[in-house]
Each structure stands twice: as C-alpha cells, then as structure tokens.
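Sequence in, structure out. Go.
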Amino acid sequence: MARISFEHLDGPVQGRSTPLTRLPAVIGSDPGVDVVIPGVARRHALLYQRDADVVILDSGSALGTFLAGNEIQEAVLRDGDVVELGRGGPRLRFHLPDAPRGRVLEHPHHFGRLSETMAFRMLHQSSRTFRRTLAVVLAGAAVLLVWSTLHSRRMDREMATLRGTVQQAEKERRAFEARIEEERRRGDADRAQLEQVRAREAELLRRLTDPSNGEVPALKDELKSTRERLAALESERAAGERIIREFGAGVALIQGAYTFADAAGRLLRYRSEDGSAPGSAADAFDPDGAGPVHVVEYYGTGFLVDPKGLVLTNRHLAEPWWNDDEAERLQKSGYRPRLMYLRGFFPQQKQPLDLALDRRSETVDLALLRVDLKGRKIPILPLDRSTTGSVAGQPVVVVGYPAGLEAILAKAEAGVVRQILSSHGTDSERVTEALSQRGLIRPSTTQGHIGDVTGSDIVFDAPTTQGGSGGPIFNKNGHVIAVEYAVLPKFGGNSFGVPIAYALDMLEPRRGGRKKPAA
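Output:
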C-alpha cells in the first residue's frame, strides 16, 4: 500500500501530517482512533480501500463530512483532496503520493543479495542467543500478522455494519419527512375547507344581487345552509382557539422511552448487529446479543390538574408496557421493563420537566404523574364536577399532540425543520429539545360531537390519532369531561375517553370513596 497521510490545515497541530500505515482507518475524537481530531464525533469517518481506490465513509455523524464543499456519505479520495469534518470544522488534506518510478541500482562494490544458503549458514553459525532472539522476533511478527488480519476483518465487518446503519438512518429520515409533509397537507386541507365555504357564501351573495337571476328562493336556501355551516366551522375554530389561549400552556407533550432487563440487570439487545427484529420478541432479543439495546420510544399527552404538580394522563403512558402484548411476552420470558426516561414539554417552557408516577387506576386507563414545577406558572385545567356535563350530541374540543413529533414539525416553517433535522438528525430526544428551545411545542385542537355516554366511556367523533392519548376533552362550557385513551379507525373513526369522574376519585379520595359511574 502506498504511503497515505493527512495534513492538518488548521487547529493546534496545523501543518503536521498524520501517516497511515494500514487500512481501514478511523478519523474521530476518540483517543484510540487512527487520526485524532478534537471537537468532532468519536468515530466521525472511516477510511478503507476498495480495489485500487481509497474511500472515505461518513459514520453517521451529526456534523457531517464535506468534500469540495459538498456533504458526502461516501466518496473516493484523490491526492490533494481537502476533507472538512463538519461545515466550517477541522480540515485535512489527503496525500497519496505516487510510488517511485525508477529502480535503485545496486553499487558494484556493495554486498549483493544473500542467497538462501548463505542466510542458512549465517543462522547456523550464529550464537544461540541470536537464534533465540530471532525466533522471538519471528514469533512476534507472526502474532502481529495474525492480529492485523483479524483487526482488518473486524474493521471490514464494522464498515459493512456502518454502511447499513447510514442507509437505514437515511431511510428513516426520508420516512420521517414524509410523515411531516402528510401532517402539513392535512392542516392545509382543513384551512382550505373553511376558505371554500367562505368563497361559496360570497358567490351566493353575488348571484342574489343579480336582478336577472330567477333562482332567488333556491339561492336564499343554499345561502342559509352555507352560512349555518360556516358559522359552525368558525364557532368550533373559535372555541378551540379560546381553549388553547386559556389552557393550552397546561397541556404537555409527554415523551418517554423504556427497555427490558434480565434478573441480573443486563439490558435486552437485538441479536443481530443491524438491529433488525424478525419474528417474535423472544426470538429477536437477547442480553448477549450483538446489536443495539432494544429501546421503545413513544409520545403522548398529559395536563396539569393540581397546583402541587400533578399531571393527569393515561396509565399506558405512565407504564407503557401495560396492556401491551409484546411486552407481556417478554415479561413471561423473565425480563422486567425499565423506564429510561419520562418527561413533559409544557408550552412556553424551554426545558422539559421530569415526570414520575404518583398513582394509577387499577380499573381504567388513568394515571397521575408528579412534576416539580419549581415555581413555574402553568395553568391548571378545570375539571367538570357536575353530572350533566356530558350529553350525547353536544360539541367537544379535544386538545393534545396527535401524531406526536411529526405534527409539531409539520406546523413549523420548512426552513426551521430543515435546520433542526440537519443539526440533530432523527434523534427524537434532541429534536424535541430543539423544538422546545424555539418555543414550537404547542398542542393542537380538533372538534367533534359526543356520540354516546356510558359509565366507562365517552364516545366522540373528533379526529385524533396516536400521540393524542392522555389529552383533555372539553365540553361546550370549557370544562374537561374526559381523558382520551383510544381511537378505533375501523369503527367510523370513533375515539374514546375515560369519564373525568374516575380522575376525581384519584384526586379527591374520600372516606368510603366517591360514587363511581355505573358501568
């Protein structure tokens, strides 16, 4: 292999060169890599040989790798190329000088090459100490050769895994952006519907002022129905805006993640290095697996109901393995769930607040989480304490974070979204924190009507989806009558909420208990 080196173009070692004696080689900030560059990712990029070319591969770093000003994932390097680790980051010049073209002639007075017989004789006639030393050197060389071969194979495997990881990350990013665009189109469709009704009203008014038009009675009837529809749409929109204005800051985006561990505390891992999970959970995971730790991330909604710092939400958000079939199979195999983090992002609060389970219902999907408000002024949502607040046919407003992170990104400006995803990739923790820092975490509202009221459920038709679980359901008086917990798309898109009376039982325990609604 020709002599390869990198010349440092800036930083404390500017002007120095780092030679590479073997490939593959790693560039990063980890002290154990081949080319150490402070301030970049621990394993920022990988250098390897492909046929006669030397190739650089970005290892999925957040800062990125640039060649000739363009961000690259993988590229062939030529002598003199300048590699930039992150936009405006450290720069390295790649050197791959040509091998000598001429042949060095042996001087006639110099000793020629020793024949194998002469070498054997010298070895035979040398001292025992010399022979032992030579044997040790040869043994060491053999060990080094074996180690180098194994290390090269390991690096080749890591390189293949890394390429697969980069491709998977790119696939996830594109799918993530597609979901964001879908949520943006859905919001545009709602606004377009309102504008269409307004435009129809204006068209009917114009036609009514035409004295030659003989369809005045029919136009008046259509104008009346159009105005009623427009009034309903604007009324629902205004109700949602009023609720958001008064109580939106008390509705939190809940973000959590959990994993599983065995009796010895070892975390459950994917069996394969690429993190794929074919088949059932029992077949796909193992504490001794070669892949990454099995982590389940999720989003939901919760809202403040007590000045002492109590957040009401679903039990399946406080204990996400509850009533989960896959989690139940893992627990039957001897693994125990472990919550990695649980936090709430309240609007107007730049930093997330840690959440902890305070109490849970054993009969319905409700739980109370405790949060340290640290003096923050966050509105407390009003709960309906009457027995007449939920009536079939009446309008409702549902507040929450349906579609979770994607919906929040969909409401943000496209330039801001690109900037956040470019800086933080698809790391949900960092992306959510970046949104919170910019004040972009705000709940959305949907309107509908109550379809049915039972002792255990309030059924309503307001559109919602995953991520809206745990959100408050307001009646026309602006009081919370239920907590959303499920949506059944196969049954006309109906959603379900737990009546707030169950939450009042948890918040206001009385001697002998409150009278629960009849099931």
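Check: The first strand starts at residue 4 and ends at 8. The chain is about 35% helix and 25% strand.
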